[in-house]
């Protein structure tokens, strides 16, 4: 190749690479988090490795799923998990840390909004009502519900880093007068009895070792007649405890999502009744005509590979703290367990 052609080819390739990086970071910035700002929550850079091994020690022996460990260690373990993953979730998924039924012809962003607004509608939320968001993450659902219904929303999360992220997003969205965020344990909430008109939890109570502990607390802080909506993670009747492939997939999901043990679908309503609720409605949102709930996760595989490269480069350049790559690999593996099929 002529030297001039070679120079032009290299320049074009360099330009394409830089454009790609800018595009990657730009795209993430729209969601509020850029690759160059990835942190490990409130963990100091030199402690990331320790905390990551501490997270894994929870699952040390293959038989010892977190369910066998003492329940009182779970909130600290979940807090460590969210220090490790919150920024990667925000960067690669957005401000709503949950799945949503895919809607044909609609974007993921729209499907997420519809799924969150459904909660507000089920709760009959309106201006003047005070709602509780049980396990609020960085507040994506809280802002959608407050904006859609005009209600006030108080969110609680075990993770201090998420509290700061959520407050900052609330301010930027101009919703800080309506949305408040508190750091605390949803199994021992710092709220008086009968202090909320309605409550909801979105893919959060699966972190509780005993569902009674969180549902009981929600029942206590709700006013009599108040409604509670919960989107739960459960195993379906198709799960076979005697099929090693099923068991391995569920264990993989528990390990990669800080879950002390997934519950069966039929256990949920029974627990709600046990703590005092009347069960008004129970729906399986994953049934057709909804597309499979993992559709979005499966479709993103190419971008996870790209994310992995970006993270490796940033770790090498010491822009991202050591350990981000390992956590990202763990999430990649989790995505595999969540989407794998026979
Ligand atoms: C309810 C919970 C969280 C559910 C989901 C929000 C997350 C479950 C798995 C996560 C992800 C997996 C793969 C990541 C990918 C490798 C990375 O490049 C970008 C982020 C991911 C897509 C990440 C995003 C969030 C999840 C989909 C649990 C914790 C109870
Ligand atoms: C998967 S995230 C879902 C967040 C939010 N509901 C959403 O959909 O964006 C689970 C949330 O539950 C919170 N959580 C888990 N265990 C908790 C506990 N014991 N007390 C309070 N919050 C908890 C986590 O901190 C996290 O914010």
From TrEMBL:
GO terms for molecular function: 24-methylenesterol C-methyltransferase activity. GO terms for biological process: methylation; sterol biosynthetic process. InterPro entries: Methyltransf_11, MeTrfase_SMT, SAM-dependent_MTases_sf, Sterol_MeTrfase_C. Pfam families: Methyltransf_11, Sterol_MT_C. Residues 81-342 form the SAM-dependent methyltransferase Erg6/SMT-type domain. It catalyses: 24-methylidenelophenol + S-adenosyl-L-methionine = (Z)-24-ethylidenelophenol + S-adenosyl-L-homocysteine + H(+). Signal peptide: none annotated. Keywords: Lipid biosynthesis, Lipid metabolism, Membrane, Methyltransferase, S-adenosyl-L-methionine, Steroid biosynthesis, Steroid metabolism, Sterol biosynthesis, Sterol metabolism, Transferase, Transmembrane, Transmembrane helix. Its EC number is 2.1.1.-. Gene3D superfamilies: Vaccinia Virus protein VP39. Coiled coil: none annotated. The keyword Transcription does not apply. Belongs to the class I-like SAM-binding methyltransferase superfamily. Erg6/SMT family. Catalyzes the methyl transfer from S-adenosyl-methionine to the methylene group of 24-methylene lophenol to form 24-ethylidene lophenol. This is Methyltransferase. It comes from Triticum turgidum subsp. durum (Durum wheat). The lineage of its organism: Eukaryota, Viridiplantae, Streptophyta, Embryophyta, Tracheophyta.
